[in-house]
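Inverse folding, one chain.
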């Protein structure tokens, strides 16, 4: 027997809030990635770590906000606490690997493709591991083709967003990239949910685990507080909006000194021997 799935139990409230959470996490994370490319090597790792945690927290919060509106009419839905926490950890680790590759190698070529692919796979892994933490009186089944489409959406979105963040062209580029990531992550989520069907068990009962209200609501407080703190760091860093590096880059060209050589006060240029004599020997027509 197939269960009746409703992904919009609260109407448009959960999709809109979920989209905003994905945009917030994407905006902060991508902005930190851009900032790392302007920072000195000693500060780069810190900005990349902050950006990875912001993106992972945003997409994790987005996923479970959307899941608050998910229901199966014939059975209650509970969640396994360790698996739910593990989905957040997987997101932070995999997104972090992808962000660090792009942050250290640049948002071009192989580094962009590799880092974006790992980041996209991290987003998809978080989604399906979070789904694996659901406990209900039934079995979850997925359509392989639709699941593949959701993974492709996540990977393409991650590559596009990281490319835009790597351009270092100002605040509006990061805002546009965050909107793309938020839309794509939400699209990946609901594409993955469209691949889901629930085959109910014949026996009824209360599933193991915690209910959504008792587990998800308190668990989302931590990532939300972290996103707010990350937003404060981003807003109060003057380089985030100006887009200027911490130190001006010095171009070193062979044969040319790195800094211009200035003249010291009172210094007179030395004249070559015979220069004054040759100069005095030249007579103008008026002197004849």
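Residues assigned per position:
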């Amino acid at each position: 027997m197939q269960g009746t799935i409703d992904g919009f139990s609260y109407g448009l409230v959960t999709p809109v809030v979920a989209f905003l959470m994905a945009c917030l996490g994407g905006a902060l994370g991508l902005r930190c990635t851009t900032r790392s490319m302007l920072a000195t090597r000693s500060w780069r790792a810190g900005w990349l770590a902050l950006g990875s945690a912001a993106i992972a927290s945003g997409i994790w919060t987005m996923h479970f906000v959307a899941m608050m509106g998910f229901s199966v009419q014939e059975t209650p839905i509970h969640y396994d606490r360790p698996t739910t926490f593990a989905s957040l950890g997987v997101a932070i680790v995999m997104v972090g690997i992808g962000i660090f590759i792009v942050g250290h190698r640049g948002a071009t070529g192989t580094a962009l493709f590799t880092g974006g692919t790992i980041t996209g796979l991290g987003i998809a892994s978080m989604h399906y591991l979070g789904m694996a933490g659901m406990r209900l009186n039934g079995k979850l089944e997925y359509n392989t083709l639709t699941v593949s489409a959701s993974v492709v959406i996540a990977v393409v979105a991650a590559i596009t967003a990281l490319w835009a963040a790597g351009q270092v062209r100002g605040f509006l580029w990061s805002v546009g990239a965050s909107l793309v990531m938020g839309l794509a992550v939400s699209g990946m989520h609901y594409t993955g949910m469209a691949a889901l069907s629930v085959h109910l068990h014949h026996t009824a009962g209360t599933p193991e685990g915690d209910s959504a209200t008792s587990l998800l609501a308190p668990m989302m407080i931590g990532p939300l507080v972290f996103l707010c703190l990350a937003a404060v760091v981003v807003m109060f860093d003057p380089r985030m909006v100006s887009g200027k590096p911490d130190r001006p880059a010095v171009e070193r060209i062979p044969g040319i000194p790195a800094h211009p050589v200035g003249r010291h006060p009172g210094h007179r240029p030395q004249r070559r021997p015979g220069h004054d004599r040759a100069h005095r020997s030249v007579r103008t027509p008026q002197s004849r």
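Strands lie at 5-6, 71-72, 78-79, 134-135, 138-142, 196-200, 210-211. The chain has ten helices and seven strands.
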